[in-house]
Amino acid sequence: AALREGYEHFDPRAYLRNNYLPPRADFSSEEFVVPWKLRCLAETFASGEIRGRTLIDVGSGPTIYQLLSACDHFEEIVATDYLAVNREELGRWARGEPGAFDWSPFIQHVCKIEGRGEPWQDKERRLRQRLRRILPIDVHRPEPLGAPLRPPADALLSAFCLEAVSPDRAAFVRALAHVGNLLRPGGHALLLGALGESFYLAGPARLPVVPLEESDVREALAAAGFALRELRSYAMPPALRTGVDDVDGVFFAHAQK
Ligand code: SAH
């Protein structure tokens, strides 16, 4: 209930400013956190192993950076969020409306690291075409979308959501199992998330986060029925500890249901 109340004050623009503008979104060096996240995703999708009809992104928030490498490998991307304000922010970008957040530096950077010489506008157009559904979701329900996804997703992505909506590690494991219900057996799951974080800010909202260690991520994935393929982590450099949260680092996990 406290978490739900906290999210009522979540300000998408403040969240975007805190995490997706400099200093965190600085593309001049791979030492910064945003380029690190984009590289994890670009390298994982580059194998060509993760592909199919549908990819579902859980707790998309107001962001699309996490879909930039994914969108080349799926016919449809389903974005989801608990909050209408975030779904509206995403819709503005998907429709190319004025006032939408400018993701073009992210798109340009991903095209650069993917190294295929693709014009960034082509990737932008492809993601907009494939992002056809932006659905409400609640990961605390065994059926997070209110009904099963039919057919189930071929891949699942979730970035900075599950630990940011779970009061403790047990709730994190349950949430992971719930979102696993949206994925077909054998389907790939990619998780990005915060390590050692106890809160983050989004305007007037101060959201509690369950602090995780790498071992918690490993154990949670196993308990929720996933086989771990790869786990990487990033230590937040002092210059990026800006007071918008108390995050120690970031993990990236690739697992299979
Ligand atoms: N994926 C984005 C946003 C993460 S912020 C990124 O990578 O930055 C966490 C998100 O979880 C917010 O958008 C918030 O609205 C969403 N959220 C809050 N409660 C939720 C719930 N019960 N189920 C699913 N998502 C929830």
From TrEMBL:
- Recite the lineage of the species: Eukaryota, Metazoa, Chordata, Craniata, Vertebrata
List the InterPro entries: NNMT_TEMT_trans, SAM-dep_methyltransferase, SAM-dependent_MTases_sf
Against SUPFAM superfamilies, the record matches this protein to: S-adenosyl-L-methionine-dependent methyltransferases
Q: What is this protein called?
A: PNMT methyltransferase
What's one GO MF term for it?
A: phenylethanolamine N-methyltransferase activity
Entry keyword set: Methyltransferase, S-adenosyl-L-methionine, Transferase
**Has the keyword Transport been applied to this entry?**
no
Ligand binding (S-adenosyl-L-methionine): Y15, Y20, G59, S60, Y65, D81, N86, D138, V139
Q: Would you kindly state one Gene Ontology biological process term found in this protein's UniProt entry?
A: methylation
- What are the GO cellular component annotations? cytosol
Question: Quick one: signal sequence residues?
Answer: none
Q: Which family does it belong to?
A: Belongs to the class I-like SAM-binding methyltransferase superfamily. NNMT/PNMT/TEMT family.
Q: Does the keyword S-adenosyl-L-methionine apply?
A: yes
Q: Corresponding gene?
A: Pnmt
